[in-house]
Each structure stands twice: as structure tokens, then as C-alpha cells.
Prior knowledge:
CATH topology of the largest domain: Rossmann fold
Strand content: 5-15%
CATH class of the largest domain: Alpha Beta
Number of strands: 10
Order of helices and strands: EHEEEHEHHEHHHHHEHHHHHHHEHEHHHE
Helix content: 40-55%
Oligomer: single chain
Amino acid sequence: MKISSLICEYNPFHNGHRYMLDTMRRNGSDYIIACMSGNFTQRGDFAVFDKYSRTKTALQNGIDLVIELPVTYACATAEKFAFGGVYLLNALGCVDTIAFGSECGKISSLEKTADLLCSDALSDKIRYYLSLGQTFAKARENAVSEISQSSADLLRSPNNILAVEYLKALRRMSAPISPETVRRVGSAHDSLTVSESIASATLIRRMMNESNPDFQNYIPKTEMSPIHQLSRLENALLYRLRMMSREDFSHLPDISEGLENRLFSAVRSACSVSEMLSLAKTKRYPLSRLRRIVLYAFLGITQADSDILPPYIKILGFNQNGKTILRTLRNTAKLPVVMRFSDVKKLSPDARRLYALETRCDDIYALSGESPEPCGKNLTANPIII
């Protein structure tokens, strides 16, 4: 039987995601495992629906088993996000393939670009463009264009970029998992228009924030859960940032070249998060990087936390097919499987530390809904079963 997998956020799950799962089934997937971000996303934001609501929707629409990507990887760079997901899928020990969307839809082109990015020849060229004050993404694109214009063109599209990072992670781990790509259809990533009855997650979230009920036309018909927004906690976020010293900022992930000083100064002058980001932003430090760093600060995630490899497999939910996979994991899993909080007591100190961090972060997330929720859901919630 073919066990396929994917790495996702489902923020929220929409018609484009359903198209991908249907395509995977047509391509022979008997079981599909999703490694899904928890309550936080790679954009440096809170997920619009909590992880258990999104798990239930995923299970109702074609996923058989959902495992959680830890917060330290879920709100990281594309490279780290991809590495954490592939690491966990490889640790399951039973996954045959990993599927991912891409704008190009050609696995050979993506693999060519991944090979190029892993080559030693590229490193010096990237360093040169970085010395000119370019962002890493722009420096890499310019360096690649000197060797292969087709690969440089490919790296201008966000799903292609993430697909290449998945391939790099597979190579880095020598994981025995075959990659497959599904060409993205419908509206483009971050597009604010609808195409082929598919709206981007960006447009859907904007509709939600504007209380436009039309967003329901582009997601599965499902029981609606409370919408969460980081903006509801803006004063709390600013309070946290104002209490931090320069040294505190220096211990955050993705801090380099004195960026802690720029952030510290911006925080002291700004009266809103958007103003603070605007003051800190430069060509070298794009908003996407700054938003992630601000989220790290708010959640109390340090570089030391970020350095911990995923130490366990947290099960968020499963269906009847998922039960079959769970039985397989008893013999194949290379990491402890966590179903309930009682399983955490058997983990290593580093693993318990990461679980405690995840719990603390979820407790902060619980304040961002339409009304505050109590602490402790990460300690008491059982996997979703359908």
C-alpha cells in the first residue's frame, strides 16, 4: 500500500488543498499523512483556526493522519520549515512519498534547482550579493541566475521555492521518500482574485478579517470554529517587546549582524506593531523575517529552543485508515509517539522542554480568539478521531 505525505498549514483548508488531495488519490495514494503546523504559521502569525479545528477539517477532506509540526519549525524560514516537516515524516519510518504543490509542476526542474542550491559553487556568489546589502532571497536568485536562468526564474515563485526546500531536506537526510509535485491550479499564492473557484488562503483570511461571509464559498462546508487574530493581542505584544533588553533580542532565532540593536531601537520609538516593523525594515531585513522574529519574541522562543531537533511525533488526529498507520508506527517510528499528555512523562528532558514551550505558546494563542480561553488545552486535549 502506498503511504503518501505532505507538509501543510491549512490556514485555512480551502478548495485548492482539496484539489491536491484528490490528485494524490488519483495518483495512487492509499493513505495520506499530513505534517501540519500547530497554532502558528510560517508568516509569523497566528493560525486563523486552532490546530484541532484544522485537523478535523483535514480528516474530513482526505487526510488520514495528522501530526504536528512544532512551533519552532512552523514559524521559521522556508528552509527550516521544510526541514522540520521532512525530518518528522522520515521519522515515521513508513512514508513512501511526499507530495507538494508547485507553480512549475515539473519534478525534474525542481530537482535541478535543488542540486544547484546544494552545490559549493553557489556559496561564494551568494556571499558576494549579500555583501551588497541584498536580502538572502534576492542574493540567492542573482547568484543562481549566473549559472541557470531557468532555475532563477523558478525561484521567483513561492510554491516552487518551498518545493525546492523539501527536496534539499530529503537530500540532507538521505531520506528514502520519493518526491512528487502537483501543479498549482486556480489563483496564485497571495493572489487577491479568484480563479477556477479557488481563492488563495491570503484572500480568504482577508475576507475573514473584513467579516465578508463570501469566504465560505472557497472552503469546505464544515462547522465553523472561532477565528483567532494576533492583532487582538497587539498591546500585549508591544508590552513584551518593551520589556526586552538588547541582549534578550540577541538570543532570538534569525538574529544577526546587529539586527537586535535595530529592533531594540524601533521598539522604543513605535506605538504600534506596524510602526515598529516599518522602522526596523530595510532592504536587508524584509518584513517577513521581522514578523517571524517578533513572533519569536512574543512567544519567548530563543535560538537554543530553535536548535532542538523535533524530538517526538505528536498525533493531532486520525480516521480509520489512520488507525492502520498508527499500528504500523509501533514497528517503524524512529521517535516517541505522543498521543496524550501522559506520554510526555516518558520523553527526554529536551523533548519535555519543547513540549512545555509548545504548551506555553498555545496558552498565549488561547487569548486571541473571539473570547479568551483557559490555559492547558495542550495538556488535556486528545487527538481528533473521525
